[in-house]
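Tokens in:
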């Protein structure tokens, strides 16, 4: 065993992808150059979807990579790591991503809702993973960091703190005019 394989790496995630039920990319981030071009990425995603969309498993080895995935309604969530990556770590990232998306979309995890909140979901993904390094695995913490703007949340669902902050902001801006 050489010394490089004995060292654990922080760069655990090679890619994350969210595909629709036709296998088309809705969101994908690649963190290394395993698939350097968009064409290679799309070919990999098509192959991945073909291997997983009818399966009941949660993990697959494909092209020398460990991939964990889950589906809901018309979305497929994938977290891709190296061949020696710990599946439990990848699953914790997958669960964090899915649960965060579920909270952002208020449990309405489907394609249209994902598109409506794509900006927040991209921010959330950046909070979970940076350049392949896992930063966060707690969905509540990610949702707080993404901090859905108060004006996106109906008044009936806002906390008292959010309502007061919104009122303070409005007062501040009216005084500054």
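Residues out:
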């Amino acid at each position: 065993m050489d010394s490089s394989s004995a060292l654990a790496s922080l760069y655990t995630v090679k890619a994350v992808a969210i595909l629709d039920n036709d296998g088309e990319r809705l969101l994908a981030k690649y963190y290394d150059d395993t698939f350097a071009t968009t064409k290679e990425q799309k070919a990999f995603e098509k192959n991945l979807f073909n291997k997983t969309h009818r399966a009941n498993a949660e993990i697959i080895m494909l092209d020398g990579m460990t991939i964990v995935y889950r589906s809901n309604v018309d979305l497929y969530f994938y977290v891709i790591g190296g061949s020696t990556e710990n599946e439990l770590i990848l699953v914790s990232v997958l669960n964090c991503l899915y649960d965060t998306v579920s909270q952002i979309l208020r449990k309405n995890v489907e394609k249209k809702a994902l598109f409506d909140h794509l900006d927040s979901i991209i921010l959330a993904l950046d909070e979970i993973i940076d350049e392949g390094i896992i930063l966060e695995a707690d969905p509540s913490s990610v949702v707080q960091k993404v901090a859905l703007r108060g004006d996106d949340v109906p008044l009936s669902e806002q906390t008292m703190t959010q309502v007061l902050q919104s009122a303070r902001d409005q007062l501040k801006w009216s005084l500054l005019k």
